[in-house]
Each structure stands twice: as C-alpha cells, then as structure tokens.
Amino acid sequence: MTKPSDRAPSAAEIESIAEHAYRRIPERLRKLVDAVVIRVEEFPDDEIIAEMELDTEYDLLGLYSGVALDEKSYADAPQNVDMIFLYRRPMLDYWAENDDTLEAVVRHVLIHEIGHHFGLSDEEMEQIENEA
C-alpha cells in the first residue's frame, strides 16, 4: 500500500493487512501460536505504557499477549486467548517516516511479536522475515 495523501488506513484496513500477512508468514512461526487473535488498537493502554516504562504512547508498535507453548498444559483450562495487539497510530507514524510499505511494517511487527514472545533471536526473526 502506498502512502496515502488524503487519509490514513483505518483499523479495519490494518486488521485486513495483518490477517493477510499472518497467513503468509512461514508455518514454523505460525505453529508457535494457536488460534491467535489479531487486534488493532489506536495506542497501548495506560497499564501497558506504565508496565513497559514507555516514554510515549508512540513507542510501541505491537505486543504479543499469551502463554508460551512450553508453559501451556492441555490439562489446564484455557485462561486467556493468545493475542497480538497492533497499535495503529504508532505503526502509521513509523510507516510515514520510513520507506517500507505498510504491509512490510505490519508483517515485521507480527513476526517480531511472535518471535520475541517465544524467545527467537533477532537473527532468527530476520531469517523468517526474509522467507515471508
């Protein structure tokens, strides 16, 4: 998606881009998450900002919330759904300030949120991004 001159993509448009990007990331990464929900929010909430000690609400593009596979037990009742939060306004600012397409920014955030949550190195995530 080229940079628009008249309006920014809506949350629904970013969610659509994210769902498409998620389907295109390599299976070995997708299998780490089970039925993850992708949710687009304008900004991280105040609790996340405080917990992560962010300077501003623009400092976080996305967040993975869930339980790692090695901590899940099939005997336990599920407590929460695994979710990836994409923060629309910070991603749009990043997109506007860089040469990447919005699709590339969203894919990068998805891969990094899943990867960081499951302990992948930056090199492993870069390799996965190159495969996508």
Q: Give the DSSP E fraction (strand runs of 2 or more residues).
A: 5-15%
Distance between the termini: 17 Å
Tell me the name of the CATH class: Alpha Beta
In CATH, the topology is named Zincin-like
| CATH architecture annotation | 2-Layer Sandwich
Instruction: Describe the global form.
Output: globular
Class computed from helices, strands and strand pairing: mainly alpha
What is the fold's blueprint, element by element?
Blueprint: H1 11-24, H2 27-30, E1 37-41, H3 46-51, E2 62-65, E3 83-87, H4 88-97, H5 102-117, H6 122-131
Distinctive features:
3-stranded mixed beta sheet, 132 residues, Zincin-like, single chain, 11% strand, 45% helix, mainly alpha
How would you describe this structure to a colleague?
The protein is mainly α. It has one domain (11-68, 80-131): Zincin-like (2-Layer Sandwich), CATH 3.30.2010. Helices cover 45% and strands 11% of the residues. It contains six helices and three strands, in the order ααβαββααα. The chain has helices at residues 11-24, 27-30, 46-51, 88-97, 102-117, 122-131; strands at 37-41, 62-65, 83-87. It has a three-stranded mixed beta sheet. Helix 1 (11-24) packs across helix 5 (102-117) and helix 5 (102-117) crosses helix 6 (122-131). The longest helix is centred in the last third of the chain and has 16 residues, at 102-117. The chain is globular and about 40 Å long. It starts with 10 loop residues before the first helix and ends with a helix.
